[in-house]
Design goal:
alpha+beta, Aminopeptidase, Alpha-Beta Plaits, 2 domains, six-stranded mixed sheet, four-stranded antiparallel sheet, about 30% helix, binds zinc ion
Amino acid sequence: MTNIEIDPVELSQSLIRCKSITPDQAGTLDLIQEILEKNGFQCSRLPFKEENSPEVDNLYATYGNKEPNLCFAGHVDVVPPGKIDQWEEDPFSGKIKNNLLYGRGAADMKSAIASFISASIKYILINKKKFNGTLSFLITSDEEGPAINGTKKVLQWLKKNNIKINDCIIGEPTNPTKLGEMIKIGRRGSLTGHLTFYGKEGHVAYPENADNPITQLINTLKVLNEKKLDDGNSFFQPSNLEITTIDVNNNVTNMIPQSASASFNIRFNDEHNSESLTKWIKEVCEATAKNHKLDIIVSGESFFSEPGKLSNIIVKSINDELGVEPILSTNGGTSDGRFIKDFSNVAEFGLIGKTMHKFNENISINDIRSLSIIYFNIIEKYFD
Ligand SMILES: [Zn+2]
């Protein structure tokens, strides 16, 4: 076994150089596994494949076998780079310019993975003899994609094998503009509705012989759109419904169309769940529209981890390194926290999200080094 300190910036560069566009791990998991195994971790590679979705490779790695188990969860897959000529640097070169590391995944979230690996190995080097817990990694390459064969399946595998995670840190880029300003202790849920209304087509001059589905559509959307879902609460902003598209595809002006459709998305807090919202939407549709079809897709329930030991440790660790007090927030999109919350306490803390999913995604190398120190502080406070 060779214990060598890992430089988090160099490892971030190596990970960025692997072109791991979702769901292809493209060598990232091999690299991580090699480093972790060299440092005494037991690694399990967990490829999953469900019909109609691509096979996804995942990694679960552990050091130690006692409770408590502190897990770092993250994803190596990235969104596509988009138009390469819009980038100042090759998105897969891992180039550093003016102290900024450029590349797809620099912020979301390869550098956070590298920082946690670096912090863990440093901690193990110092505390090998007295270590009495479990340090683990749950790394997927299906977070940016459909998230069917990723974290969700690994958690089922852990359950089947009676492996318990007590506390989990997800390394998503939680800070809007400055390192240390925000931890996420929950997320809103997300639900999408697709509605189609059927009427009877006909000539506009003879409306008595037709039934205009657009009228029904407008009436229904008005009720859905105008309803105040809640006022938010101390940790969540108010739930919100946004109509995302209205489609009739009628190219002529003298015809009442046969059908009309619309889609909407609701980001909801813990005052609701997908079941209560689905019930409400169905009631509205039944009361306002006649012949219609409603499809609802739930991409995640909201979750909330009561501030406690884990978030306190993260707050203290950030404060020790940066002298700032982070906000405990629940805003932003969904994350794999929606799956992990059923198995473990969860909090999310990583780098700065400002450039994620954009051209010229980049992160300051000073922030990567600071994050690695913060993660080290977290591990130390957690186990000591
Ligand atoms: Zn991410």
